[in-house]
Amino acid sequence: MTTITPDAAVPDSASRQGHPTGLYVLFFTEMWERFSYYGMRALLVYYMTKHLLFAQEKASHIYGLYTGFVYFTPFFGGILADRVLGQRRTVIVGGVLMAIGHFLMAFEPAFFPALVFLILGNGCFKPNISTQVGNLYAPGDRRRDRAFSIFYVGINLGAFFSPLVCGTLGEVYGWHYGFAAAGVGMVIGLVIYILGQKHLAPDNIMKKAAAGEAAPEKLEKDDISKILALVVLCLFNIVFWATYEQQGNTMALWADQNTDRRIFGWEMPASWFQAFNPAMIFLFTPLLTWWWGWQARRGKEPASVTKMAIGCILLGVSFLVMIPPARAVGAGGGSASLWWLTACTLILTFGELYLSPVGLSLVTKVAPARMVSMLMGMWFLSSFFGNYMCGYIGGFWEKMSKESFFIMLACLSCGAGLGMLAVLKPLKRAIGHGRDEGVDV
Hints:
With 441 residues, the chain is an all-alpha fold. The chain has helices spanning 21-51, 56-70, 74-85, 87-104, 111-135, 143-173, 175-195, 204-211, 223-244, 250-257, 276-297, 304-320, 323-332, 338-366, 372-394, 402-422, 424-431; strands at 15-16, 19-20, 259-260, 262-263, 266-267, 336-337.
């Protein structure tokens, strides 16, 4: 039996490739959970427009509401974990709710109840699996950023295979087979998590119980300024996700309706487009981490907030790539080459890698220990507003020319990046070094 001490960081000394074994338990748990989420998401717009026969604008708004609320509930899931259940129990509750939701998607009358189960389950699961990665490392441990990059590869490994499996089953053999496969993936992830409990760090509730604490820890004097700085970053994060998430919405429609997907006479299923981005993430993450290491050795690695600003700008540039094919399709009709979509996704992927895992790591560095799950939930809450905006923006897909639509996305993304750079100095002063002394954030 593992003895829990109030200052415990990692429950055992076992490690793989310089990281605690618990990182790989969380890696595979999140991989299968993301398999289930992105497998369902790859089919969602097609299912609504082709099977349930919803109008495109209505389907876009439902897509935006669903993906938005998926990131709204983690704020409350974080509070539940910080104050009542602890991160471990809350993750298990979330996994069970999501498995139920995926299996309910196999029945048309249960479509909206299934979405509710998925939203509530994700709210319990999402913030608490991410914060447990940070719990594995003591303050000041420089492995933490690399750990989040490894964890992020797990996210996208699941996201890569899910459109290939769930998308193919749904489009070729029947929608319900695709949704059922997503449910099976969630169950596998839940089993891995439960069996790997002994390798995880104790959460804050467990530490408090071991210490016999009744009163919560007090916030330090500078914690309020750090929280406010995170709020400001969340505002820019909203714009990033509002444009980024178009790849599951309007960009999926472009792949289906305006892209020549024939490869040597074989036509690639449209849902396979959803695998491009995650495939590029686990292919190029090692390259990017090497690049950051090379910069660090020369004292030129950008601070976390600067990296996030670069990510927003790269996202905007990716949509500029789509202007020539949009202009050509608008003028002469027909379909654009798949290479345009591939180039756009490549640049978009580097933008994501500069922002998303860096943001997750930043929250665990800066957030006070007693509020880390709640503030991780706040970070995901910004994705709620971003995804809701994604659905609203997607409603203009059929009202604007495609060229104008991509210009609008580029302006929004680049504007967010330039805004971050404009307030960079006050943000860095407010955040300081977080809880990881000596680490520039």
